[in-house]
Amino acid sequence: MMLMTKDSPLTRKLSAFVTLSDVDLETLARFHGRRRTFLPGDELIHEGQPNASALILAEGWALSYKMLPDGERQIVDFQIPDDFLGLRSILFRTADHSIEAATRIEASEVLASDIFDAFAHAPRLATAVLWAASRDEEMVVEHLVNIGRRTAAERMAHLLLELGARLMLVGLGDKTGFACPLTQYHLADALGLSAVHVNSVLPHLRDRGLVTLQKGQVTFDDMDRLRELAGFNTAYLDQDGPLLR
User: What is the C-alpha separation between 205 and 229, in angstroms, rounded?
Assistant: First the structure.
């Protein structure tokens, strides 16, 4: 069984809302008993799948998406290490979206019984898991605003800033930038743009001295100006410190 410490990435993420006790940490460690590996392009959960399990992403990146009848894909979110994947699938009869591996992934499978046991025996951890699910919903709302009302440059800036903030929380990025395995096609499907448009927006932001995405690395060249362009405010990510101690 994996030992969860107070400074592990997942603990650090959940502790942004709730201070976890030793009992919470022991319960959280039991979530990691069933380890699974996925390769790029593998489907972790497919839309309509009955009785799907949730997953905790330990290594790698994934993407959540919906397919349209004409074959077009809308990516609704990207998952990074220590995110929960498919939490709603535990409560719904069928999964309401698909999840695909963007890179090689190591993940822990979490059954409905694991979650319900946590709710019964570690209520503070259950509260933290509920916070994580609610935070995911807040991000989807912000993504809707991104696609519906922001310009292409603003959309790109906002997405990269959000990913940077999320990665900083779990120790995988800092104010200078982060490693990013996403392709222009991933970004296009997430932002409602064509790949050609993405390929013109990124050089535009780089030439303005704001942000550079090159060779799998995002570099924040001027984060303050990038935030101003995107109208980016981290309040919806709710990661300024625990409300419950």
Answer: 10
Does the pTM surpass 0.85? The reply is yes
pLDDT digits (tens, 9 = 90+) for 203-222: 999 999 999 999 999 999 99
Using alpha carbons, select from 87, 74, 101, 107 the residue that is nearest to residue 185.
Answer: 74
Do residue 61 and residue 119 come from a single domain? yes
Cα–Cα dist 212/177, whole Å: 9
Domain of residue 155: give its range: 141-237
At residue 187, φ and ψ (nearest 5 deg) are: -60, -40
CA atoms within 13 A on the CB side of 150: 22
How far, CA to CA in Å, does 232 sit from each of 141, 155, 158, 161, 224? 14, 10, 6, 8, 10
Q: Are residues 190 and 146 in the same domain?
A: yes
**Cβ proximity of 101 and 60 under 8 Å:** yes
In a 13 Å sphere around the CA of 100, the CA atoms on its Cβ side amount to 14
